[in-house]
Design goal:
Layout (H helix, E strand, L loop, with lengths): L4 E2 L5 E3 L4 H8 L2 E5 L23 E3 L2 E3 L5 H10 L4 E5 L7 H15 L4 E6 L8 H7 L3 E4 L13 H10 L4 E8 L4 H14 L3 E6 L7 H6 L15 H14 L5 E5 L1 H20 L5 E2 L5 E7 L5 H11 L7 E4 L4 E4 L1 H13 L3 E7 L7 E7 L2
Parallel strand pairs: 3-6, 6-7, 7-8, 8-9, 9-10, 10-11
Antiparallel strand pairs: 1-2, 2-11, 3-4, 4-5, 12-13, 13-15, 13-16, 14-15, 16-17
Bound molecules: iron/sulfur cluster.
Iron/sulfur cluster (SF4) binds next to loops.
C-alpha cells in the first residue's frame, strides 16, 4: 500500500510527483498560453471569454502582441525567476510551429534544465511530437475526453500515448476530477500504469464564466459561496487516490485543488515577481501584492502636481512617479499618509491601493486616505 501525502491546501498525491508540479507549487513555472484555439470542445473547459477560441498569446498575465513579441516572454520568465514553463492553451499542437519555436527559444535562453511541459488534447498534429521532443520538451500531458476514460484502450489517443512513450519525453495524463466518475478515472489510471505513463494529474473541477451554464445544466453545484470549485470533485479525487494507494500502482497521482492553484501556485508566483519588479515606493505585502499611495487630480495637470509634490514636501525621485497610463501620481504610502489631509483640502483625491505585481496590475483593494 502506497502512502497518500497531503500537500498544500487540500492537494494530495501518491508518489512519484512530477517536477512540473513541484515547480508549479513553488511559483517558478511560467504559464505560457500559446493559443486559445483548440480542436476539442470539453463541456468543462475553463478558458475565459477573452482567450477561448482566440489565437492570443499570454506569458502569465502578459499578452504578447504578436508571435514575434518574444521579448515579453523572456522578460516574464526573468521576472518570476522561472525554472520552467507550462505551455497550455487551447491546444499548443494547433500552432505547432510557434510551440516548437518557443520551446527552442526558452531552452536556448535559460538552458537545458529549464523544464518545459505542455498540455494537449492529443487530437491534432500529433505527428509533431518528435519535433517538440527534439526541441527539448521535457513532459507532455495528454487530455483524453471523459467518454474515453473507461475504454481508453480502443481509442486513437491511446495509440498516440503509446507511441509517445517510445520517445525521449516524460508522459503524463491530466484530466478534471468529475464528480461520480471515480471508477472511470481509476480505469484510466490503471491503463496508464500498465503502459508506463509516469503521472496522472487530477484537477478539481471549477466553475468559470464560460462553463457555468453547462455545469449547471448537468446538475453540478458550487462547494460554497467563496470558492469556484464544484461540489464532489475533491471527494472523487480522494477516492481515486485511495484506490491507487491500495492497489500499489507505480504511477504517481497528484490531485490539484482549486485553492492550491490560487493560494499556493499563484501566490508564490506573484511573490517572486513582486521581488523583481517592485519600485522603491511600493511595499510588498505578505501575499506578494503591492501597496502604494495614489493621487488623482481632476483640475490640476498631473505634471504640475508632480512638480508641486516634489518641491512642497521634498520628496525624492524614487518615491513619487507620474503614471501616465493610469493617469495618476503614485507615491510611497508612508509619505501619502502624512500629507493626505493637506492634499484633500487642496481638492486632490488620495487612496491606498493594493495591486497584483502582474503585467495586468489587477487592483485588489482601494481605500480613501486619510482613513
Ligand atoms: S482540451 Fe482543454 S482547452 Fe481544449 S476544450 Fe478541452 S479543456 Fe478546453
Amino acid at each position: 500500500m502506497k502512502k497518500i501525502f497531503s500537500w498544500f491546501n487540500e492537494s494530495s498525491y501518491v508518489e512519484p510527483l512530477s517536477p512540473a508540479c513541484e515547480m508549479c507549487a513553488a511559483g517558478s513555472k511560467m504559464v505560457l498560453l500559446i493559443t486559445g484555439l483548440c480542436p476539442s470542445s470539453c463541456f468543462y473547459c475553463p478558458l475565459s471569454l477573452e482567450k477561448s477560441g482566440k489565437d492570443r498569446i499570454f506569458a502569465d498575465e502578459w499578452e504578447l502582441e504578436t508571435e514575434e513579441d518574444t521579448e515579453k516572454l523572456l522578460l516574464e520568465a526573468k521576472y518570476i525567476n522561472a525554472t520552467g514553463a507550462g505551455i497550455t492553451g487551447g491546444d499548443p499542437f494547433v500552432v505547432w510551429k510557434r510551440t516548437q519555436r518557443y520551446i527552442t527559444l526558452l531552452k536556448d535562453n535559460f538552458g537545458s534544465d529549464f523544464h518545459i511541459h505542455l498540455y494537449t488534447s492529443g487530437i491534432k498534429n500529433v505527428d509533431k511530437i518528435n519535433d517538440f521532443v527534439s526541441a527539448g520538451l521535457d513532459e507532455i500531458r495528454f487530455h483524453p475526453v471523459p467518454n474515453n476514460w473507461d475504454k481508453i484502450k480502443k481509442t486513437q489517443i491511446a495509440d498516440t500515448i503509446k507511441k509517445t512513450l517510445e520517445t525521449d519525453v516524460d508522459v503524463a495524463i491530466e484530466i478534471p476530477s468529475i464528480p461520480g466518475m471515480e471508477n472511470e478515472i481509476f480505469s484510466l489510471v490503471n491503463w496508464a500504469d500498465d503502459v508506463g505513463v509516469k503521472w496522472v494529474n487530477l484537477n478539481e473541477l471549477e466553475f468559470s464564466e464560460t462553463n457555468a451554464e453547462q455545469l449547471k445544466n448537468k446538475g453540478y453545484t458550487l462547494i460554497d459561496d467563496v470558492s469556484s470549485a464544484v461540489k464532489g470533485s475533491q471527494d472523487t479525487a480522494y477516492c481515486v487516490l485511495d484506490m491507487a494507494s491500495k492497489n500499489d500502482l507505480d504511477i504517481g497521482i497528484h490531485y490539484c485543488s482549486s485553492s492550491f492553484k490560487d493560494g499556493i501556485q499563484l501566490r508564490n508566483r506573484i511573490k517572486r515577481r513582486a521581488k523583481n519588479i517592485a519600485k522603491k515606493y511600493e511595499i510588498i505585502s505578505d501575499d506578494g501584492t503591492l501597496l502604494k499611495g495614489v493621487i488623482f487630480s481632476q483640475k490640476t495637470p498631473l505634471k504640475e502636481l508632480y512638480i508641486f509634490l516634489k518641491q512642497e514636501y521634498e520628496i525624492e525621485d524614487d518615491f513619487v512617479f507620474l503614471n501616465k497610463g493610469k493617469n495618476r501620481i503614485e507615491i510611497g504610502l508612508w509619505i501619502l499618509e502624512k500629507i493626505a489631509i493637506d492634499l484633500r483640502k487642496k481638492g486632490f483625491e488620495c487612496f491606498m491601493i493594493e495591486e497584483y505585481p502582474t503585467a495586468d496590475a489587477l487592483e485588489v483593494e482601494r481605500m480613501p486616505l486619510p482613513l
